Amino acid sequence: MTYSFAQEGFSDCYDDLEPLYRAHYAEMCERLTAAGQVCSPYNPRLDIYRASEARGDLITLVLRSDGEAVGYINVYVTNDMHNMDRIAQEDTVFVRTDHRKGVGKKLVEFGLSELRRRGVKHLTVSAMTDLRVAKLWQRMGFKPLATQMIYTF
Fold first, then answer.
1. Phi, psi of 33, rounded to the nearest 5 degrees
2. Strand ranges for the chain from DSSP E
3. Would you put residue 66 in left (φ > 0), alpha (ψ -120 to 50) or beta?
4. Per-residue model confidence as pLDDT tens for the chain (153 residues)
5. In whole angstroms, what is the distance from residue 89 CA to residue 74 CA?
6. What is the pTM of this model?
């Protein structure tokens, strides 16, 4: 297999990524449901994604194997509301299960390089689908900063 990494326009690659978005959401919902959380049906707000892309706030990085999309990162880049530092917030990171043999780390490294090139000071991520990924991120230099909690109505 030959892997490639590239930034692609969300709208340009959406059709290729849509099955991955669904698979990611299903995997995340399985974990959340097991933890007692209700997971609403998949219904992405494509208009908001496209508007964010048009403003330049949304970056989509795609992992392809022999041309086929097998993973992606969606990340929002903005200026910090308190000091104007360039910051990023991960929306989603996903690699298809049959390609999770180290290439996910390379995808994240590619994303970090792209964000560094854009002058981003820090990236915030959340381990939501598979909590074990937090250990990988720590080995890559990410540091725990806060405890995320949820209150369900």
1. -65, -40
2. 3-8, 58-65, 68-79, 86-95, 122-124
3. left
4. 799 999 999 999 999 999 999 999 999 999 999 989 999 999 999 999 999 999 999 999 999 999 999 999 999 999 999 999 999 999 999 999 999 888 999 999 999 999 999 999 999 998 877 778 888 889 999 998 888 888 888
5. 9
6. 0.92
